[in-house]
Specification:
This protein has 621 residues and is of the alpha+beta class. Helices cover 34% and strands 24% of the residues. The strands form seven sheets. The chain has an eight-stranded mixed beta sheet. The protein has a five-stranded mixed beta sheet with strand order 24-23-25-26-27, with helices on both faces. A hairpin with a 5-residue loop joins strand 12 and strand 13 (287-290). The chain is globular and about 90 Å long. It binds one RNA strand of 75 nucleotides through strand 6, strand 7, helix 6, helix 9 and helix 16.
RNA sequence: GCCCAAGUAGCUCAGAGGUAGAGCAACGCCUUGGUAAGGCGUAGGCCGUGGGUUCGAUUCCCACCUUGGGCUCCA
C-alpha cells in the first residue's frame, strides 16, 4: 500500500537541514522532485500537487494543461530527462521565505495546488521553505539529497488517476509512480522481488494448474472452480468443517435471496445499498435482494424459537455464498470478487461469556490458520467509524475493550485501526505475512451489540427474565475464494501434500512393457489404497523425461519413476518436489511399501484424518 | 465509478485498410526412452461484442463487455 495519508501541509514549514547521509525516504522524495522537474519541462504548464516517498518508491500528482494526459509511453521520455539531470548533478537548494512571499511566488508560477497547500498551513507558521532544483521550484520542508547525482537508480513504473486530496468528489489528477534506490543493484533486487510476486500470482497459477477461471460470459468477478481447484477447495472446507464441529459450532443453511425487509431491519440497505446487486422486483412490488451478508439469516434462526441461557453460547456456522456489487475497477482475481463464499459464523452469547469466548475464538482462529501453513501474525483492532456507525458510544466502548482484552492476551503485536470498524461493531482482524513477506488480512472477529437490538433478540435468563444477548460475527478464511488465492500465492502453487490435488504421479519408463505397466498399476493401487490421490502418466509414446516434466509443471509433490530394473526389486526411484533442494538431491530410491508408509503418514498429518470429529460441545465448558 | 493501458489459436505473443502468423499445448505417425521439453506431420481463429466510415474493416472511429495497473471503496 502506498502511503496515502499524505499530510500535504506538513511538506512545508519547519526548517530541516540537508543531511550528510540521506535515508531512502529522503532519496525517494528527492526523486519525486526530480521527476516533477522533468515533467514540467516536457509538459510546459503542468501543475504539480504533492509528491512524497512511499514504502516502495515515490509518486507525484500532476494536472497537465489543456486536457493533456501522461501515458505510459511518456514515462520513458520523462525517465530519460531525469537521467540527464542526474548526470548533471543539479543541486537541491533550500530557501526560507515568508509564507506570503511563497504564496505569491507560486501564484505567479500558476501553481494553484501549492497555493492551496500554503493556505492550509496553520496560521502560526510564519515562514516556509522551498527547494530549487535547476529551474524547478517546489514548496517543501525537505530534507533532500545534496544534488541530483544521487538519483541514478530510478525507474518510473506507471501512471494512475487519483482524486485530488483523495476525495472522489474532487477532480482527478494524474499520478506517476516510480521507485528509487541508492544503487542499481538494490533497484534490480527490488525488480526481482516484483517478478517473484508475479511468478506467484494466483491468476497465473490458477490457469496453469487448471484450478479456476473467470469466463467472460458469467460476468466480472465471478469465478468457476475446475475439478482440481474444486478438490483443493473441498479439502480446505472439509477440514474447516471438521474443526468447527469439534469447536462446538452447529451447521446451518440459508437461502441466497431475501425480501428487502430483512436488510432494512439489519441496516444493510441503509448503509450498503450501493454495494448490493439491484433488487429483483416481483409482481406486487415486492423486492428480493441477493444477500451480501449471512448475519440476518442466522439471527432469524436464533429467533425462530425462545432461547434459554442454557443454550448459550450458540454458534451457528455456514459456508454462505454472498454477492456484493463491487465497483468494476476494484475486482481482482479471486481476492476481490462479486460472488464469494464466507466461512461465516455468528455466536450468540451473554455479556458474561464475551471475554472467554473471544479468547477461545482467537486461539481457535490462529490454530486453524497455522494448520494451513500461515504462521506469522499480528492483530489489528478497528474502532468505531465516525459518522458511519449505529449504537451508543458506551456500547462501542464496551465491545472495543472486550476485543482489546482478548487481543492483548494473545501475545501478538496489536495495531490500532481507528475508525475502521463495521457500522455495527468494532473488530479484530488477524493479519498474516506470507512466504514472501506480504501482509494479508485474514480472519475478522466483530463484537456486535446492535443487531440483537435491531432484531429484538432475547433469551430467558436463570431467574426467568428476558435478557438481550450479544453477537460475535466471525470468519476465519474470510472468503474461501480469497483464502484459496492467498494460499496459492503463499505456496507459489506448491501445495503441501494434504492439499495437493494430485499427490503422486507414477511414471513408467517403458510404457510398452507389460510387466512395467502391471507394476505401475500395482503401485498406483497401493498408493490409492493408502488414501492418496494418484495419477498414472499413461499417455502412450511420451518420453519419460517429458512425463516427469509434466508432473513437475503441475507441482505434483511426489513422482515415482519405475522401469524394468525396478520390477524385480519392487522399488522405484522417487522424485520429491521440494523447492529448497536442487532437483538431483530431491531424488531418492525407495521401495514401494516404504513409500506408501511414508506418504500415508504425511497425507494424514492434516486434513480430514487429523482430528476425528467430536460431538459438539455444549456451552458449559 | 474514475485515470492509464490491453483484448488476435488452449497459453505466450507477432502482424497489417485487401478474408492471418510463430513458439508451446492438443491430435497422428515415427522414436523404446532411467528423472524438467526427441523428430516429422495434422488440425486449430466471428482477430472480445455491436454499430459507423469505406468498394472492402481484424486493422480507422464510437459504444459496450472483459482483463491489467492505480484512485476511491471494501458490511
Amino acid at each position: 500500500m502506498p502511503d496515502e495519508d499524505v499530510d500535504d501541509a506538513s511538506e512545508a514549514g519547519l526548517p530541516i537541514d540537508s543531511p550528510a547521509d540521506p535515508t531512502l525516504e529522503i532519496l525517494r522524495h528527492s526523486a519525486a522532485h526530480l521527476m516533477a522537474a522533468a515533467v514540467t519541462e516536457l509538459f510546459p504548464g503542468a501543475q504539480y500537487d504533492v509528491g512524497p516517498a512511499t514504502s516502495d518508491g515515490f509518486f507525484y500528482n500532476f494536472r497537465l494543461p489543456e486536457g493533456r494526459t501522461v501515458s505510459e509511453q511518456d514515462l520513458a521520455r520523462i525517465e530519460k530527462r531525469m537521467k540527464q539531470k542526474a548526470s548533471q548533478r543539479v543541486p537541491f537548494v533550500r530557501e526560507v521565505m515568508p509564507r506570503a512571499q511563497a504564496r505569491a511566488t507560486f501564484d505567479d508560477m500558476g501553481q494553484p495546488f501549492k497555493v492551496d497547500i500554503i493556505d492550509r498551513i496553520p496560521p502560526e507558521v510564519a515562514e516556509v521553505s522551498v527547494y530549487r532544483t535547476g529551474n524547478f521550484v517546489d514548496l517543501c520542508r525537505g530534507p533532500h539529497v545534496p544534488d541530483s547525482g544521487w538519483l541514478k537508480a530510478v525507474k518510473l513504473q506507471r501512471v494512475a488517476g487519483v482524486y485530488w486530496r483523495g476525495d472522489e468528489r474532487n477532480e482527478q489528477l494524474q499520478r506517476i509512480y516510480g521507485t528509487a534506490w541508492f544503487s542499481d543493484e538494490e533497484l534490480q533486487a527490488y525488480l526481482d522481488r516484483i517478478a517473484e510476486a508475479e511468478r506467484r500470482d494466483h491468476r497465473r497459477l490458477g490457469r496453469e494448474l487448471d484450478l479456476f477461471s473467470f469466463p467472460e460470459e458469467i460476468g466480472s468477478g465471478l469465478a468457476i472452480f475446475h475439478p482440481r481447484g474444486g478438490l483443493v477447495r473441498r479439502i480446505m472446507e472439509d477440514y474447516s468443517r471438521q474443526r468447527h464441529e469439534a469447536a462446538g459450532y452447529e451447521f446451518v443453511n440459508t437461502p441466497h435471496i431475501t425480501k428487502s425487509d430483512l436488510f432494512e431491519t439489519s441496516g444493510h440497505l441503509q448503509w450498503f445499498a450501493d454495494g448490493m446487486f439491484p433488487p429483483m422486483e416481483l409482481d406486487g412490488g415486492t423486492n428480493y435482494y441477493l444477500k451480501p451478508m449471512n448475519c440476518p439469516f442466522h439471527i432469524l434462526i436464533y429467533r425462530s424459537r425462545q432461547r434459554s441461557y442454557r443454550e448459550l453460547p450458540l454458534r451457528l456456522f455456514e459456508f454462505g455464498s454472498v454477492y456484493r456489487y463491487e465497483k468494476s475497477g476494484v475486482i481482482h482475481g479471486l481476492t476481490r470478487v462479486r460472488g464469494l463464499t464466507m466461512d461465516d459464523a455468528h455466536i450468540f452469547l451473554t455479556r458474561e461469556q464475551l471475554d472467554t469466548e473471544l479468547h477461545s475464538l482467537l486461539v481457535f482462529v490462529l490454530d486453524l490458520l497455522r494448520d494451513f501453513g500461515l504462521t506469522d501474525f499480528y492483530l489489528e483492532l478497528s474502532t468505531k467509524p465516525p459518522g458511519k456507525a449505529v449504537g451508543s458510544d458506551e456500547e462501542w466502548e464496551e465491545a472495543t475493550e472486550a476485543l482489546r482484552r482478548a487481543a492483548m492476551k494473545m501475545g501478538l503485536e496489536l495495531v490500532m485501526d481507528e475508525g475502521g470498524g463495521a457500522f455495527y461493531g468494532p473488530k479484530i482482524s488477524v493479519q498474516a505475512h506470507d512466504a514472501i513477506g506480504r501482509t494479508w488480512q485474514m480472519s475478522t472477529i466483530q463484537a456486535d451489540f446492535q443487531f440483537p437490538q435491531r432484531f429484538d433478540l432475547g433469551y430467558v435468563g436463570p431467574t426467568g427474565e428476558k435478557v438481550r444477548p450479544i453477537m460475535i460475527h466471525r470468519a476465519l478464511f474470510g472468503s474461501v475464494e480469497r483464502f484459496f488465492a492467498i494460499l496459492l500465492e503463499h505456496y507459489a502453487g506448491d501445495f503441501p501434500l494434504w492439499l495437493a490435488p494430485v499427490q503422486v504421479a507414477v511414471v513408467p519408463v517403458q510404457d510398452d512393457a507389460p510387466e512395467v505397466m502391471a507394476f505401475v498399476a500395482d503401485i498406483a493401487g497401493q498408493l490409492r489404497a493408502a488414501g492418496l490421490r494418484v495419477e498414472v502418466s499413461d499417455h502412450p509414446g511420451m518420453r519419460m523425461s517429458k512425463r516427469v516434466r509434466d508432473a513437475e509443471v503441475q507441482r505434483v509433490p511426489y513422482v515415482v519413476v519405475v522401469g524394468r530394473q525396478d520390477v524385480e526389486s519392487g522399488s522405484g526411484v522417487i522424485r520429491v518436489r521440494d523447492t529448497r533442494l536442487p532437483a538431483e538431491e530431491a531424488i531418492t530410491e525407495m521401495t514401494v511399501p516404504g513409500l506408501v508408509e511414508k506418504l500415508r503418514g504425511e497425507a494424514a498429518k492434516r486434513g480430514p484424518e487429523a482430528a476425528p470429529p467430536q460431538r459438539a460441545r455444549r456451552a458449559a465448558d
